[in-house]
Amino acid sequence: MASDRIFGLVSLFVALAYIASATQIQTSFLADPVGPKAFPMLVGAVAALSSLVLILRPDPDPSWPIGRTWVSLLIAVVVLIAYAYSLKPLGFLVPTAIAAGVLSYQLSPQPRAAALTGVGLSVGLFVLFRFALGLSLFAFPKGWF
């Protein structure tokens, strides 16, 4: 029970810091009525509420994952950090395909299915973000084409 409450308290502080940082987002005079602060503040509020639930109603008998699960979590964190740093120099498609493939392989260790999932997710998200949402993503590094 103590571990849930400690994690809930730490998460609450992080959520409050996230909300505080979201209030510092600068808005231009051409912003939409909701503004760029709304979504981060909503995410922070949901995280704060979830943290309060952990503090007020902890699991009476939490079961911690075994060592193999910790290794999988560490691999996922490393992959996501590497993904964030590789987006700008390598474009969107290649890093997203690799990251999605590795994470998919962790969920279900089938190499062919993981590779197809990575490529499909990469292309699908690129089409969605670029053409449906109008984001200015580069598919590949600028020097390639």
Summarize the structure.
This protein is an all-alpha fold and 145 residues long. It has helices at 2-22, 38-56, 67-90, 93-107, 111-132. It folds into 2 domains: 2-56; 67-132.
3D structure, described in words:
InterPro entries: DUF1468. It comes from Pontivivens marinum. The chain crosses the membrane at residues 38-56, 68-86, 92-108, 115-140. The protein is mainly α. It is built from five helices and no strands. It has two domains: 2-56; 67-132. α4 (93-107) packs across α5 (111-132). The protein is flat, with a radius of gyration of 19 Å. The model has no long low-confidence stretch (mean pLDDT 87).
Secondary-structure map with pairings?
Layout: H1 2-22, H2 38-56, H3 67-90, H4 93-107, H5 111-132
Helix pairs in contact: 1-2, 3-4, 4-5
Pfam family, one: TctB
Protein name: Putative tricarboxylic transport membrane protein
InterPro entries: DUF1468
